[in-house]
């Protein structure tokens, strides 16, 4: 008989399936638990399959509880239990495991207690790169964002006071106090315009028009700040990835950091699966390629040549006749660095030694291919 899986083995299994980046198993647990929580609120569906819904919910809760216990144990052995327990991940794991049982113990209705399963959704956040990028953007752009928020609140309060002054006599129920006017100001400044409270005096309508325009401006500022921050963060990430790839290519090994940074700005990365045609014979060439990782196969007349990590190809079309002379295909998953024709000429002008190396390699290959 096979031996039962030991606790350390289960620990490794759970850590593998519920690590920092959620695996498919954990994603399925989150998705299934949230769906069951929603079905719990639909009386006909819950009455028809309440046994299944309850069983699945308890199974999801058991998974997240066990996950939390395993992480606590791992943190204890690593002597980081306090750090983990007070971290955002640790607090979320604790709430995901404890909140529902605690609510049931305190006597809450089960349908109300299981609504706390909404916290399970936040467990997917660490596995979404875009959300981590958003967090960095919010931190880096916190100053401008808070400045616009202060401007928004100032306009909101000012609009409420002015509308209270203009409309309180005409509409005492809707604008009888500044807090009552705040509802109108929020709906108008956010350009939602529910229409349940509207000014009726001519001057009040004029102020309302100005508030709507201010709302568009404020949200336009927020959008611009976030868009600029995302663009800068994306450029930074792309630069770091390209830098890492460039630094691994032996062809650029002799360059200093400043020159590598110059080259990195010119190159763009391309990740390709195996058996992908990169260059087709007879096509016009407008770029060359450096192999940062992987392998390609060059189909020459009568023979096939394999180029591995650190090699480059496609340069012959840039140095002379711009027609591709061979078919080139990836043999396995590869990462290529692409240098376009304009940037190629600029790079050769800035770094003549690289130009000489590429030219010498092109002549050598031309002699071999004759």
Automatic annotation (TrEMBL):
Keyword set, alphabetical order: cAMP, cAMP-binding, Cell membrane, Ion channel, Ion transport, Ligand-gated ion channel, Membrane, Nucleotide-binding, Potassium, Potassium channel, Potassium transport, Transmembrane, Transmembrane helix, Transport
Positions of the Cyclic nucleotide-binding domain: 251-365
Places the protein is found: Cell membrane
Membrane-spanning parts: 21-40, 52-70, 91-108, 114-131, 143-166, 172-194, 206-229
Pfam family, one: cNMP_binding
GO molecular function annotations of the record: cAMP binding; intracellularly cyclic nucleotide-activated monoatomic cation channel activity; potassium channel activity; protein-containing complex binding
GO cellular component, one term: plasma membrane
Subunit structure: Homotetramer.
Function: Cyclic nucleotide-regulated potassium channel activated by cAMP.
PANTHER family given in the database record: CYCLIC NUCLEOTIDE-GATED CATION CHANNEL SUBUNIT A
Name of this chain's protein: Voltage-gated potassium channel
């Amino acid at each position: 008989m096979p031996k039962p899986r030991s606790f350390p083995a289960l620990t490794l299994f759970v850590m593998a399936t519920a690590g920092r980046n959620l695996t498919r198993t954990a994603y399925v647990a989150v998705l299934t638990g949230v769906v069951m929580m929603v079905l719990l609120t639909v009386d006909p569906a819950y009455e028809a399959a309440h046994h299944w819904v309850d069983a699945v919910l308890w199974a999801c809760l058991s998974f997240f509880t066990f996950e939390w216990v395993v992480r606590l144990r791992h943190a204890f052995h690593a002597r980081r239990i306090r750090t983990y327990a007070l971290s955002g991940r640790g607090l979320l794991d604790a709430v995901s495991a404890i909140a529902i049982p605690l609510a049931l113990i305190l006597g809450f209705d089960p349908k109300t207690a299981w609504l706390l399963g909404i916290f399970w959704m936040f467990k997917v956040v660490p596995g979404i790169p875009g959300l981590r990028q958003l967090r960095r953007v919010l931190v880096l752009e916190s100053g401008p964002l808070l400045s616009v928020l202060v401007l928004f609140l100032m306009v909101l309060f000012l609009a409420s006071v002015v509308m209270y002054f203009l409309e309180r006599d005409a509409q005492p129920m809707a604008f009888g106090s500044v807090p009552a006017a705040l509802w109108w100001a929020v709906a108008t400044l956010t350009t939602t315009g529910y229409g349940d409270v509207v000014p009726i005096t001519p001057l009040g309508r004029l102020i309302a028009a100005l508030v709507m325009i201010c709302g568009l401006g404020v949200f336009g500022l927020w959008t611009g700040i976030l868009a600029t921050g995302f663009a800068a963060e994306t450029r930074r990430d792309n630069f770091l990835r390209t830098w890492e790839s460039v630094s691994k290519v032996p062809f650029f090994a002799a360059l200093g950091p400043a020159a590598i940074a110059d080259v990195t700005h010119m190159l763009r990365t391309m990740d390709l699966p195996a058996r992908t045609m990169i260059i087709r014979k007879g096509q016009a060439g407008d770029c060359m390629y450096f192999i940062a990782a992987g392998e390609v196969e060059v189909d020459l007349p009568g023979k096939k040549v394999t180029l591995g990590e650190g090699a480059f190809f496609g340069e012959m079309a840039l140095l002379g006749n711009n027609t591709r002379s061979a078919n080139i295909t990836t043999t396995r998953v590869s990462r290529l660095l692409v240098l376009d024709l304009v940037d190629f000429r600029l790079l050769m002008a800035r770094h003549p030694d690289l130009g000489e190396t590429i030219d010498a390699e092109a002549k050598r290959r031309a002699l071999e291919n004759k």
